[in-house]
Sequence to fold (199 residues):
Amino acid sequence: MARQLRFNGTVGSGVRSPSVQKARIVDLGEFEGLFRTFSHSAWRLETRRRYASDEATDTYRQFVETGGVEWDESDPYCELIRSQTAQGKRVERVRIVDQPPTTGQLYLLNNAKRNSRLGEDIRNLQRADADSLQLPPDDFWLFDSRLAARLRFDDGDHLVDVELITEPAEIVRYSVIRDAAWHHAVPHEQFAAKPSSGE
Fold:
């Protein structure tokens, strides 16, 4: 059973002093630039049941229709991540998955095959385990353990903008979340091989 941890306590909470750096909202273009400028590691927690941007793609329609995808590994994102991991930089993520998984989550489980070939290390965590750990609902990237990028979505699950956070106490809090999620998550190859409870 996953060990219970609390992330809404004293770490990164409480009264903020006037000298604390405020978070900054950036557009998606500036956010994408972070993937070109990070020095050592880019780590993501994916918490949502669906992403509207995925559903607008040809690959998503292909997945819904056939159950598989012919992934293009030459698009700009792939080239960028491949070049970063080739330099020894780490790109890692934990995806929280429902039981049974949503269609969007199944699509991302399939997508993990492509991203792994780019050098990403992708792991998965059942939502029940995430709830047991009391992980927050924040969907975020953590760059070089010094900058957190919290993704902000509208009611239609569209990514609207990104909140950049550099306050040290908040970075510690996000780092603790990362460590707990990473410790309990399962490499995507093992996770994909496990039968669902409905089979």
In short: Helices lie at 28-37, 52-55, 58-66, 76-86, 103-117, 127-132, 168-184, 188-193.
